[in-house]
Design brief:
Elements: E1 2-5, E2 11-16, E3 19-20, E4 27-30, E5 33-36, E6 45-51, E7 57-63, E8 67-73, E9 78-82, E10 87-96, E11 100-105, E12 117-118, E13 121-124, E14 133-140, E15 147-163, E16 167-169, E17 176-185, E18 189-194, E19 197-198, E20 204-208, E21 213-218, E22 227-235, E23 238-247, E24 254-255, E25 267-274, E26 281-288, E27 302-306, E28 325-332, E29 340-349, E30 352-353, E31 360-363, H1 382-397
Parallel strand pairs: 9-15, 16-23
Antiparallel strand pairs: 1-2, 1-6, 2-3, 4-5, 6-7, 8-10, 10-13, 11-12, 11-14, 14-15, 15-17, 17-21, 18-19, 18-22, 20-21, 22-23, 24-25, 25-28, 26-27, 26-29, 29-30, 29-31
Length: 398
């Protein structure tokens, strides 16, 4: 007799002598051997050859059927979770040999920072919108191609707003665009207001790119359009807002000159600013610094209020400059040689003053006097000879 003992323990008689009892199996008897074709998973188990003698004689063969891994989701395909809660993603795999399961994320790294993790499940705790995305469970046992299943996590959270440019410098007649980047689930509604009132659609155009970018366009800016604008985002989970401003004020200047001065008692300070109307005044402040760069400045601020068109000096506009960017300079005189100074600059146009620039450090030309005594005279004797030798050497080298 030839029989099959299945993994669940059930015995199925296949052959008695030369007679096949289970026609559905592609099983043939060849002498004292049995040949099975079209092997399937259900064919795994023990096969017993038994001779009914007294006592009976048996030979047991074990068939291990290997097959590629196949993964299946245990968690829902899409999970909606509230911000701050936890979510568990889980899957199982069928395969022989047993499959290894790994997790990855379509959008890049996992929230833990790793590229992948192993295990039957992963748990995401204290979730926020940054853990949203599609997570991939992959099973592989070395046979055939790996098997994958996808699960998507969507986090419901109150509105959040970021701005590209909180202060927009512009001029009359120009076009201004205020942008709010709005996130939230469910998607928030966005409204714009100016000076406490919903913006007029006459010259204000509100648009949305269908994702997160909300833009308010002001065509042909007028003086009434200057001021603060509020971007308000609302949903069933809350509301928030951001304030943006359109201004005609000049942008805070940026100092562009080299810290190393080329003159002993003067220094030319250069800077650039952005103003959509002419600069009518600039304020320059400078003072002497202590010898130790780490010490506090010791001098008092010297303040100069000047007009670019005045006799005391004005803007130096670069030949290639265009638009609202203006390049300006001013020569500071009556400085001390080999001395450290610091300065800052602000500019004014018809709408008012810019902010003060960052403090800029510079120094007048520094030289070491060769052979000079403390009183300014040449030392006699050996000192004078050394001075003469050094002077001749410098002449020859030049």
């Amino acid at each position: 007799m030839f029989k099959h003992i299945q993994p669940d323990g059930e015995h199925r008689l296949l052959f008695v002598g030369d007679m096949l009892l289970k026609q559905s199996m592609k099983l043939k008897k060849e002498g004292n051997s049995f040949k099975l074709s079209g092997v399937r998973r259900s064919h795994a188990g023990q096969y017993v050859c038994r001779i009914e003698t007294s006592p009976a004689i048996e030979v047991v063969h074990t068939l291990d059927v290997q097959y590629p891994a196949k993964v299946r989701r245990v968690s829902p395909e899409v999970q909606h979770v509230t911000q701050g809660s936890s979510v568990k993603l889980e899957c199982r795999a069928d395969g022989n040999p047993a499959a290894a399961i790994s997790w990855s994320r379509k959008q890049g790294h996992l929230p833990s920072g790793s590229q992948s993790e192993e295990g039957l499940s992963i748990t995401l705790g204290d979730v926020d919108r940054h853990v949203e995305g599609t997570y991939i469970c992959t099973a592989s046992n070395g046979l055939g191609k790996p098997s994958s299943a996808e699960m998507t996590v969507q986090v419901e959270y109150p509105p959040e707003i970021n701005t590209e440019q909180a202060i927009l410098h512009t001029g009359e007649g120009d076009e201004a665009k205020l942008v709010c980047i709005v996130h939230g689930r469910p998607p928030p509604s966005v409204t714009w207001s100016h000076k406490g009132k919903v913006v007029s659609p006459t010259r204000h155009v509100s648009s949305h790119d269908g994702v997160h970018r909300h833009t308010l366009t002001v065509k042909q800016v007028q003086k009434d359009d200057f001021g603060e604008y509020t971007c308000l985002a609302e949903s069933t989970l809350g509301r928030t807002n951001k304030t943006l401003r359109i201004t005609g004020l000049p942008r805070t200047p940026r100092l562009t000159s080299s810290p190393a001065g080329g003159e002993k008692t003067s220094y030319t300070l250069t800077w650039q600013t952005e103003s959509h109307t002419p600069v009518i005044m600039y304020r320059m402040q400078y003072r002497k610094r202590g010898n130790n760069l780490m010490s506090q400045s010791t001098g008092q601020w010297i303040i100069r209020l000047l007009s670019p068109n005045g006799p005391s000096g004005g803007p130096a506009v670069a030949p290639l400059s265009s638009g609202p960017v203006q390049y300006m300079s001013h020569a500071i005189t009556d400085l001390e040689p080999a001395t450290d100074y610091e300065a800052r600059v602000a500019v004014e146009n018809e709408f008012g003053w810019s902010g003060d620039s960052e403090i800029f450090h510079f120094y007048t030309r520094k030289e070491v006097a060769v052979g000079q005594s403390a009183s300014g005279g040449v030392r006699a004797g050996v000192g004078a000879g050394v001075f003469t030798t050094l002077l001749l050497a410098l002449i020859l080298l030049s």
